[in-house]
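Hi all, long-time lurker, first post. I run a small reading group and we've been trying to get comfortable going from sequence to structure in the token notation. Rather than ask abstract questions, I figured I'd post a concrete chain and ask someone more experienced to write out its structure so we can walk through it together at our next meeting. Sequence below, copied exactly:
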Amino acid sequence: MTGATQLEPSPLRVAIFDDVVAARGEVFHIPGLAVDVHAHADDATRLCLEKAYELVFMDFAMGRGRVTGSDATAALRAGGFRGRIVAISSDPAANASMRAAGADDALATKAHLRSYLVHVGSQHRRGR
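-- Answer (accepted) --
Happy to help. Here is the structure in token form:
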């Protein structure tokens, strides 16, 4: 045997709750990640626990009559979700509101989402 083959870790399960990303039909094929995009967060707690997401990106406003990102974040935490939550609103006050509700971090602008995901995928593949 010439050497041990390093096994690739299972993809990190990622959910993005954002109406604009969903409306654009954005698809994320990023090594190390399995990314699902959802147009609203009305059933975020059920989805996150059912699909065993490990990382969640949460927008604040996802349409009239829909659950806000702050309410969804608080519900996720109250429902036992222990994964990482990143707020992705372009409004700093909305990101602050989601952080107060239990989000771990916030992106300053959604424009950085894809590059942030590439970075997370790279780290995950290296086992960090």
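A couple of things your group might point at:
Helices lie at 19-23, 44-50, 69-78, 92-101, 113-125.
The chain has a mean pLDDT of 92.
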